[in-house]
Write a structure and sequence with these properties.
single chain, globular
Length: 118
Amino acid sequence: MRAGPLRHRIRIEAFTETQDKTTGRITQAWTEFCTVWGKHEALSTRDQLQAQAIDSKMTARCRIRYSSKASQIDSTMRLYFRDKYWKIDGDPVPDNESGLEWLTLNLAEGESEWHQSS
């Protein structure tokens, strides 16, 4: 895949829990998993209607270059792009040729409470 179309900086975050060794208190937070170059785009009206027909809340997609780190992305993570959080709707979809060139992330609008926990 040519690098030219991948012009957006995309941050992927994972929800983590850490326990304080002294107090035992558990802290939950979103932390950066990786930052990648990608192409973020809104779905067309037709694609949004098709997603709604199968009860999906998907409104955008993001294509990122495949890497060993990117291959660990899953639907429990979120994506941050242009001051907005996006829920990853399902596991990433690899390219249909080698499966090792890019991943497509289907995205739904993020949860409102995510903004307070960051």
